[in-house]
Amino acid sequence: MVPENLNLVPFVSVENMMDLVLEIGIDTFLRELAEFIEEDFRRWERFDKTARIASHSADGVIELMPTSDGRLYGFKYVNGHPKNTRSGRQTVTAFGVLADVDNGYPVLLAEMTILTALRTAATSAVAARYLARRESATMALIGNGAQSEFQARAFAALTGVRALRLYDTDPSASRRCRRNLADVGLDIRICSTAEEAVEGADVITTATADKQYATILTDNMVGPGVHINAVGGDCPGKTELHRDILLRSDIFVEYSPQTRVEGEIQQLAPDHPVTEIWRVFTGVAPGRSSESQITLFDSVGFATEDFSALRYVRSKLSGTGHYTELDMLADPDEPRDLYGMLLRREAQRREPVEA
Questions:
Q1: How far apart are CA 44 and CA 83, in angstroms?
Q2: What angle (nearest 5°) sits at the alpha carbon of residue 202, between those of residues 251 and 233?
Q3: Helix (H) or strand (E) holding 250
């Protein structure tokens, strides 16, 4: 039996996404989303994998991130334009689509600006559970832009982090971050320098936005046993860590062909050894192996994470009402009569309107 209304596709707007997240609860959403992300990384070999398709300009980048597990196909459209804040726009915006591989019909369209922030944070925290020391309780968060609160919430919800040290070149960003996290139960201190923020930190998260080679962390700022969660360096020509830090660290990545072009490791030789994180999640490769080891998650974001996020959102929609149905697909009663569908619409337009 062919279902009715094949033309309608569930759409999760920004307002609906916020309502869905809040109804589930931010911490629960992050924990459950993390489970989907880890589950899909454990199925790594089933996925189509390709580095994202990027269109770069002097001011930013526009990217498409596709993947499929053979049953569902997903992609995300996302931009990164650091100068946008000057005109009151977001640095990053995104939307995503999930489709049925068997027939090619979309089954979900969703905003992914908020969802990307959540999935990036959830991925960071999942990786940290394998790479940071078990007793890690203090995180330095350098770069207090739109991603910062999500990173803090994820690490609080999924790991043992209970203290946060904030630093940003714009002190108002740190004050906003502390204010937004006031009720989360974290011990939060605003620091005047990056050096002050990382002193005594078990985890260092860098999440800056400028599209340039930068040195947010120098080698002398990173001591033994630290886990570095490098989030901000995510395109060619954009880095945050001094090269010497990379040479002292065991480096973990999502998809090495993409990260070698976009991540911190673009500073290293093309054959420098790195470990893809799925190998750690499945037990094929070790994560942290000693208390003194410096671990680095060189996170640039990969399409399977967006796939997981869309798959999770779809699983939570039923019965919530947090979506609308969009008339997206031309689907005539007779599949070969697309032109006839247009003629029938023309006839409807000519019908007189009752008073």
A1: 35
A2: 45
A3: strand 250-253
Residue length of the chain: 355
pLDDT at 211: 64
Q: What is the largest CA-CA distance in the chain?
A: 80
What's 74's domain CATH number? 3.30.1780.10
What order do you get walking across the sheet with 61-68 strand by strand?
A: 53-56, 61-68, 72-80, 94-100, 106-111, 8-12, 324-327
pLDDT bin (cut points 50, 70, 90) of residue 313 is very high
Q: Tell me the catalytic residues.
A: 234
Q: Is it the case that residue 323 has pLDDT exceeding 90?
A: yes
How does 172-211 read in b/e, with b if 16+ C-beta sit within 10 Å? Answer: ebbebbbeebeebebebbbbeebeebbeebbbbbbbbbeb
Residue 234 confidence (pLDDT) above 90? no
284 & 172 share domain: yes
Please report where in the chains the tokens 């799925």 appear, as a residue: 278
Cα(197)–Cα(40) distance, integer angstroms: 34
One domain, residues 49 and 145: no
Count Cβ neighbours within 10 Å for each residue of 120-141 and write b for 16 or more, e otherwise: bbbbbbbbbbbbbbeebebbbb
Round to whole Å and give the CA distance between 344 and 155. Answer: 56
Cβ proximity of 234 and 300 under 8 Å: yes
**H helix or E strand, kind and range, residue 175:** helix 171-180
Residue 218 lies in domain: 132-300
* 3-class state of residue 126 by DSSP: helix
- CATH number of the domain at 222, please: 3.40.50.720
Task: Please name the residue that has the structure tokens 């697309």.
Answer: 338
Q: Tell me if residue 20 falls in helix, strand or coil.
A: helix
